[in-house]
Amino acid sequence: FLDGHEVFDLGDISLVFKSDSTYSELSGLNAKAWKAEWADFTKKLYFKSGDFTTGYVAELDIANFYDSIQLDHLEYKLRNNIPHKQSEIIYLLLHFLRFWNRHINFYRQQGAGIPQDLFGECSRVLANFYLQSYDRNIANFCIEKLGQFFRYADDQVLFAQSKEDLEQMIAKASSLLMREGLNFNQKKVKIMTIDEFQTYYSFDNFIELAPQQGKVVPEISVIEAQVDFYLSSYNKLRKNGSSLLKRLINILSQIHRRPKNFPLLKKHILSKEFLLQIPLQHYEMVKIYTLLTKPEKAKMYAIILESVSTCLYSDRLYNVKQFFAEIKMPVRPVSTRITAVRRFYQLEPNSTN
């Protein structure tokens, strides 16, 4: 930290992100750092919700965030914040961004959109930098309304004392976002009371599952109750309750005793809907795998293997490859698919006769 700012050193260029209590600041350029920031973000939401006990909350999502970032606008912001002597580096960066999609656009430069998944954390840094002025403006407006603003990537949360104030804050946020060439996904705008919001984020459930009285894991009766809650309510929770489920899996992987409803939980986990739609890191797949019987392990392996041939996301494929390696299964099908995906995303289009 430097004078209340957080600095990322990218070679000769340092991008500065303001650290502010109104939104979750960034702290690194790797997946673990972003996961830690998500935990920090949810903690802030939990404690802040206690200040608005009779208020309202809105959860907002930017529509097609990465694909809609205006490259001319991004270049303007970069040149305003980076010394002139680094202008050649900015030119090179924007050249790559305008032509990275040549397997589709050929030699037509694109005016909007930055790559996702292919180039690690670089796009995340640029996307967050792109919204810095928006963050400051909407945060100040919310404070004027005695509310609060938080953002993590394209997810935004607004707290307000009344529904009328919340509607004004949403309208202002939408107006400010349009100046950046972006829009909210109207289908994902969710307005809740504080109680509904706390249930939606499973705050009370995580508190119940926290270690009590020096014990590493909670009592089996508590685990069983939380499994029941998840199975009956997951489709009403944020991201289908994936965070709560991952917490339950982590706890179950540390103990030998199983709750009575564990077979129902395993049946749910082994569905294609769960294994293919919930984003899982390789170590999370391993934890699930260790909880299963031999036939169940074979079923999990078969479902994931079947999905490899149609997967276009390199992050998912690399996690599957590492998972297969850790459970001593052949990784060749995954390696073959990774090679095919690389060819699909190659910068130079194939020549055709």
How does the major sheet shape up?
A: 4 strands, antiparallel
At CATH level 2, the architecture of the largest domain is: 2-Layer Sandwich
Helix content: 40-55%
Give the class from helix and strand content and strand pairing.
alpha+beta
What is the overall number of helices? 18
Structural write-up:
- The protein folds into four domains: 5-30, no CATH class; 37-194, Reverse transcriptase/Diguanylate cyclase domain (Alpha-Beta Plaits, 2-Layer Sandwich); 202-270; 280-347, no CATH class.
- The chain has helices at 31-49, 65-68, 71-81, 87-99, 102-105, 122-130, 132-144, 163-179, 194-200, 203-209, 220-233, 242-252, 262-269, 272-277, 282-290, 294-308, 314-326, 332-344; strands at 5-10, 13-18, 56-61, 148-152, 155-160, 190-193.
- It has 18 helices and six strands.
- Mean pLDDT is 86; it is low at 1-28 and 347-353.
- Helix 3 runs antiparallel to helix 4, helix 7 packs antiparallel against helix 8 (163-179) and helix 11 (220-233) packs antiparallel against helix 12 (242-252).
- The longest helix has 19 residues, at 31-49.
- It has a four-stranded antiparallel beta sheet with strand order 4-5-3-6, sandwiched between helices. Strands 1-2 form a two-stranded antiparallel sheet.
Short description:
The chain is of the alpha+beta class and 353 residues long.
List the helices and strands and how they pair.
Blueprint: E1 5-10, E2 13-18, H1 31-49, E3 56-61, H2 65-68, H3 71-81, H4 87-99, H5 102-105, H6 122-130, H7 132-144, E4 148-152, E5 155-160, H8 163-179, E6 190-193, H9 194-200, H10 203-209, H11 220-233, H12 242-252, H13 262-269, H14 272-277, H15 282-290, H16 294-308, H17 314-326, H18 332-344
Antiparallel strand pairs: 1-2, 3-5, 3-6, 4-5
